[in-house]
Amino acid sequence: MLNKTIFSLRIERLVNEKNIDYIDAICYYCEKNNMEIESAAVLLNEKIRTMIELEANNSKLLKENIRFATLPI
Questions:
Q1: Which are the contacts of 51, defined by CB distance < 8 A and separation ≥ 6?
Q2: Within 1-73, where are the H helices?
Q3: Contact by Cβ (8 Å): 11, 29
Q4: For residue range 44-73, what is the model confidence (pLDDT) as tens digits?
Q5: Model confidence, pTM
């Protein structure tokens, strides 16, 4: 049975071994294990969620992010 801890460790390992982003690691894992992305979303721990949010923000994949918003000065 796959739980948050095991899934998170596997994703962390993929990120480190393959030198890829968290988003790519999750997609890769899901593809290789015939798993739906929606199922993976439930298994993400807070650290990985934060890393995905940072990656998406840095890649400008998010229109507006309240958590990392900056004020125009």
A1: 22
A2: 4-18, 22-32, 37-42, 46-58
A3: yes
A4: 999 999 999 888 888 776 666 555 556 566
A5: 0.77
